[in-house]
Amino acid sequence: MMQDLVSASTFGTLLVFAIVAVIILMVVAENLRVRLRSIPEQAEILAQQFATAHNDAKANEASIDRDERMIAQLEQQLARLEAALEEKRQRLVDARNRVPSVVYVLDQIIQPTHRPWLVPIRLDGAAAEDGDWLSGRRYLVYGEDVENARRRVEVRFPQREGYRAAMPEPFELS
Fold this sequence. Notes:
Keywords: Coiled coil, Membrane, Transmembrane, Transmembrane helix. It contains two helices and five strands; from the N terminus they run H-E-E-E-H-E-E.
């Protein structure tokens, strides 16, 4: 009988473990079923997010391409403007270095410390009978510095008489 009791007790324990195992399997199966039901919804959400990210990436690539084309155009325009600027600078240098055939020299005392200065002078209200005063004259003046050269010109050609002198510029004698 003891053996029957031990067998019945073992059988009962096995039965309890089997019931617990079945319940655990049923709970796990239910959890899996719930999770499997939500997978299509999650897959759809992920697909939408992926599509949005893909569209954003395409839009950004298009924007980058547009910006790169614009930068290339601006670089070309900048190169053209720099070339035009350099050409105009060269023309300005050439114009400054080109002296008309007639340059007037003020009769004055020239000291060893004096340097030559070229000063364009215009006469306000000059008429055709005034000759080259119509377009202005260039005078070669010797002075210690810009201010000294300017004072020498203003003594000879005062503003009150209608003369307008530009800023003296250094002149190189060749």
